[in-house]
Amino acid sequence: MIERRPIGIFDSGIGGLTVARAINDLLPNESLLYFGDTAHLPYGEKSPELIRRYSSRITQHLVESGCKAIVVACNSASSNAIESIVKAAGPNMPVIDMVTPVIRSISAEDGCQSVGLIGTRATIASGLYGETMNQLNSNITLVSRATPLLASAIEEGFFNDSIPGAVLEAYFADDSFKNIDSMILGCTHYPLVRENVQALLPKGVNVIDSTKIIAQELKRVLTENAYPYTPEHKFQVSDLTENFRCSAHYFFGSDINLEEVSFS
Ligand code: DGL
Fold first, then answer.
1. In terms of CATH architecture, what is 7-97+212-260?
2. Torsion-angle region of residue 127: left (phi > 0), alpha (psi -120 to 50) or beta?
3. Do 7-97+212-260 and 100-210 come out as alike in CATH topology?
4. Any ligand 1 atom below 6 A from CB of 12
5. 220-254, pLDDT tens digit by residue?
């Protein structure tokens, strides 16, 4: 039987479209229901309590909308609210976060010894990447740094110019990343400035594309449709702004229809 229920994907706003894009590329027969909580962004500057409250409510919305799996396409929500999200999703709902699959994909056997992480304040302050690394790869060191200005700059449309490079240069100035062999882009916006990050790191550092790893993990968890059919995507936001409308295709890779949805 063809399973037509959509995959629920959520983020604080626009950044999770980079994850939705990777999922759409890998699983083109799956319908997506994307929710961007634009009324409450940025999550990266919010308290864990607030991130948990918003994330649980959105999860409930995605479950009520008939989704068959939930992808938490936001590092700040994955790092601070995963337990509340799993609880809100209910017992039989697969939930995929941004942290565990990425840490699981890193291995000391591949020569990895020291990994860098950049992300929002909320992501770095949670310490979840480090905890997960200790559990799954205790012999690999994690060096992390909050780069809060970067997501705002990208959100403002500064990603095809010198601004992200200048922002990153300021954050990397203390040389904390000089001995790393891999770098995790721990924020949904950062794939848009991947080249700027790569250019400032020592030669040969592997900049990890979390979006592809999350899409692979989803594929592993789902039994993919046996027969192709035309999928139907929906993109919802809690506050539809002109900036979101103009920037969405840079993040998703093609034009999308947006709908504003507010919870009562
Ligand atoms: N999507 C968020 C994340 O990946 C970044 C934007 C925000 O702070 O809301 O952490």
1. 3-Layer(aba) Sandwich (3.40)
2. left
3. yes
4. yes
5. 998 654 455 678 899 999 999 999 999 999 999 99
Task: Round to whole Å and give the CA distance between 15 and 38.
Answer: 11
The residues that are catalytic are: 74, 187
- Domain edges within the chain: 7-97+212-260, 100-210
33-52 confidence digits (pLDDT tens): 999 999 999 999 999 999 99
Å from CA of 111 to ligand 1 middle? 30
Which residue's CA is the closest to the ligand 1 atom numbered 8? 44
What is the DSSP secondary-structure string of 169-188?
A: HHHHTT-TTTT-SEEEEEST
71 three-state secondary structure: strand
CA distance 136 to 179: 21
Ligand 1 pocket test, pick from 9, 38, 76 with the greatest ligand atom count within 8 Å of Cβ, gives 76
Using CA atoms, how far apart are residues 16 and 205, in angstroms rounded to an integer?
25
36 lines ligand 1 (CB under 6 A): no
Does the CB atom of residue 211 touch ligand 1 within 6 A?
no
The shares of helix, strand and coil residues in the chain, as percent rounded to the nearest 5, are 45, 15, 40
Token pair, residue 13, equals 């706003």
Domain 100-210 grouped into CATH 3.40.50.1860: yes
**pTM, two decimal places:** 0.93
Decide whether any atom of ligand 1 lies within 6 Å of the 118 Cβ. Answer: no
